[in-house]
């Protein structure tokens, strides 16, 4: 039997992270050039040796049973088997490869869940719809993170720009102009569960200030949806900056991200902010044109480990980035 492969993109939150966990909206896009690939290869000999898992970037090379109980790979396989009403693990190898870093704000856990669920159900002979995929990936995210909003698994499952509110079906969005984003890695690894958990602890202690910031972020995100759909690039950049101000007030930025944001703005970016969980990971900047080389140079000089173009185009078929 030939190997089966499923790919899931990385994700980029443009506006609304963290507030989205509390029921406010967020706007997110897939990152086409960064993906995670899950491959299933049947093993003929020995016939009943079960499922093995290899994920070199995660230092995993073991039988399925040896994965820790709450590991997202394990959770993804279990929810898929349960969904399909299948009890027995197939005799196969599941291999995971990604071309972007884990724990950096690009939604690696959602990409992992989506790619594994997709390839596993295909391997077992079942095709899965996007809403089913999204529901299962959300279950995996919940077991791995505790209280995710669901924005990551939604944008990765649907693989298109979305408007997202927790508990509702995501709304696909069409940009009104070509947007040229860049994302830059601060090099600092940070778990989203940790930053979400820390904010929740502070919210429990005193919610007034945090709720005020969230309401402002929600207002900016709603204006951002209009600017995105009508192609007002400059306005969208201003809203990103205002969103960053609120995230910084919430204590979610850090000197390395601040340095990257400042470098992007100084070299002419229309907007710059952290993306995802914050306190490290990636930031996102908006370039006024498709010419992004000067921003890349400035970001690298300011300490970025890598810089990636993320074009969000009115006609994505014309996107030649891989
Ligand atoms: C993480 O990519 C985005 C957060 O808003 C968490 C979530 O929505 O679950 C920080």
Question: TL;DR?
Answer:
With 322 residues, the protein is α+β, with helices and mostly antiparallel strands. It contains nine helices and eleven strands. It has helices at 72-84, 108-123, 130-145, 151-158, 192-205, 207-230, 233-249, 255-266, 293-301, and strands at 4-15, 26-42, 51-55, 60-63, 92-98, 162-164, 171-172, 179-185, 271-274, 282-287, 307-312.
Walk me through this protein's architecture.
- With 322 residues, this protein is an alpha+beta fold.
- It folds into two domains: 169 residues, Ribosomal Protein S5, domain 2, CATH 3.30.230; 134 residues, GHMP kinase, C-terminal domain (Alpha-Beta Plaits), CATH 3.30.70.
- The protein has nine helices and eleven strands.
- The strands form two sheets. Strands 1, 2, 3, 4, 5, 6 and 7 form a seven-stranded mixed sheet that branches.
- Helix 8 runs antiparallel to helix 9.
- It is globular.
- The two termini are 28 Å apart.
- The relative contact order is 0.17.
- The mean pLDDT is 94.
């Amino acid at each position: 039997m030939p190997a089966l492969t499923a790919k899931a993109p990385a994700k980029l939150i443009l506006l609304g992270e963290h507030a989205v966990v509390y029921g406010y909206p967020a706007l997110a896009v897939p990152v086409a050039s960064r993906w995670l690939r899950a491959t299933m290869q049947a093993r003929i000999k020995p016939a009943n040796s079960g499922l093995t898992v290899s994920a070199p970037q995660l230092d995993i090379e073991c039988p399925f049973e040896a994965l820790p109980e709450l590991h997202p790979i394990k959770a993804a396989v279990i929810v898929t088997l349960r969904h399909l009403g299948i009890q027995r693990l197939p005799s196969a190898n599941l291999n995971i490869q990604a071309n972007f870093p884990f724990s950096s704000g690009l939604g690696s856990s959602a990409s992992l869940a989506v790619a594994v669920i997709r390839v596993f159900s295909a391997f077992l002979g079942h095709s899965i719809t996007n809403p089913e995929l999204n529901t299962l990936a959300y279950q995996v995210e919940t077991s791995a993170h505790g209280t995710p909003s669901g924005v990551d698994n939604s944008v990765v499952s649907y693989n298109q720009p979305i408007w997202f509110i927790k508990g509702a079906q995501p709304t696909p969005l069409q940009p009104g102009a070509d947007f040229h984003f860049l994302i830059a890695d601060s090099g600092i690894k940070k778990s989203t569960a940790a930053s979400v958990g820390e904010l929740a602890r502070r919210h429990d202690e005193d919610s007034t200030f945090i709720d005020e910031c969230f309401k402002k972020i929600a207002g900016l995100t709603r204006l951002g949806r209009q600017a995105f759909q009508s192609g007002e690039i400059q306005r969208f950049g201003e809203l990103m900056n205002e969103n960053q101000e609120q995230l910084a007030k919430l204590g979610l930025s850090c000197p390395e991200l601040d340095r990257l944001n400042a470098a992007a703005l100084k070299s002419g970016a229309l907007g710059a902010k952290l993306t995802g969980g914050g306190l490290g990971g990636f930031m996102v900047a908006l370039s006024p044109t498709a010419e992004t080389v000067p921003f890349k140079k400035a970001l690298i000089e300011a300490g970025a480990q890598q810089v990636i173009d993320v074009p969000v185009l009115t006609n994505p078929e014309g996107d030649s980035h891989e």
